[in-house]
Amino acid sequence: MSEVKDDAGTKDRKVLFQTESFEVVSIHWSDHATNHGTSKLHDHGWSQCFVLIEEGLFENRLDLGAKTEIKILEVGQVVFTPCGAKHEMTCKTAMGKTLHVYTPKISALGDSAIFKTPSVERLKKEISLSEPTRIGVLKKLIQDLQDHSISTRSPYFMNQLFSGVWPQMLMAEEFIATTKTTLATFEASPVLSTIEAEIVRALCQQIGWPQTQQSGLSVPGGSAANFMAVHCARHKLSPHFKKTGMTSSKFKVFVSSEAHYSFKKACVVLGLGLDAIVIVPSDKSGRMNVEELDRLIDEQKELANTPLVAVATAGTTVLGAFDSIDNIAAICKKHGLWLHVDAAWG
């Protein structure tokens, strides 16, 4: 643990915890300090900053370039300064205390702001995987991997639907890697299994589902969640499928034209086939045409097929459109159809 004074002399900083990837800093504020407990407008370079208010009342001015946000923060509230943004904090009470998490740690940033993009042949020469893993070689290898990897926390990274690493998630991932446990049984991970159950309960309560109808589990991502949804719908409609396997039933899965491609993968893996997918047209905003959904369900029934599940998308991949979930739910209730809401984006 170390103690330092920042440049403005307005607060004391203690580094509580530090790894190669992040650092946790406790800061004490006082009104007798320079500028009455106000930090200068500053950024953290290529680091992100997550701040938890532990004591006192604070005002945070966040400069995002295109706009400025001003928030009053009380004990227990948090503020996040994304990579490349600037902020200024003012302690509005006589004393204050904040907890800061920086990812990556500021001292580890150096001057490299942009990742390197060498050719494959050059990468093979620079990153050697054949040398004995002595500690010096291992450190260089890790540094080489970081230097040549794309920084998703950079504000210039806009290629996918994700960006950067939240400090909370980084700490959670480090804990998971350290414990190296599994959620398969309570005996193997009593704490994490309890956390999973509590998260499910809290989410169901937030949605408004009664306790007798609350159930759920964690999945590794959106594609796995959509796979599980189709699987659950099939088991609900045809529980014998688990024992007998494929039958003559021709199940149909109704998705909008803007739905995620993972539903096609789910139908292939579950043995339903790509022909099980029924594409429902979307409007110009990317939302499912609810009237067409109703018509297509009736059409498939007339063809002696079995409607299995309808999918409402809460945030489509390209346009970020939200389907009319209430109206789709009403149609599903009318036809006795399983409703799945793909809310990975939302």
Describe, in plain words, how this protein is organized in 3D.
This protein is α+β, with helices and mostly antiparallel strands and 346 residues long. The chain is 30% helix and 24% strand. The protein has helices spanning 120-126, 135-147, 167-179, 190-207, 222-237, 241-244, 262-269, 290-302, 325-335; strands at 2-5, 11-18, 23-30, 42-43, 48-55, 58-63, 68-73, 78-81, 86-91, 95-103, 251-256, 277-280, 306-313, 338-342. The strands form 3 sheets. A 6-stranded antiparallel beta sheet has the order 1-2-3-10-5-8, with helices on one face. Helix 5 (222-237) packs across helix 7 (262-269) and helix 8 packs parallel to helix 9. The chain is globular and about 75 Å long. Residues 1-10 have low confidence and may be disordered.
Strand line-up across the major sheet: 1-2-3-10-5-8
Total DSSP E strands:
14
Global outline: globular
- Secondary-structure-based class equals alpha+beta
Q: How does the major sheet shape up? A: 6 strands, antiparallel
Distance between the termini: 40 Å
Q: Write the element-wise H/E pattern from the N-terminal end onward.
A: EEEEEEEEEEHHHHHHEHEHEHE
| Overall pLDDT metric | 83
Strand content: 15-25%
CA-based gyration radius: 26 Å
How many distinct helices? 9
User: Level of helix content?
Assistant: 25-40%
Weakly predicted, low-confidence segments: 1-10
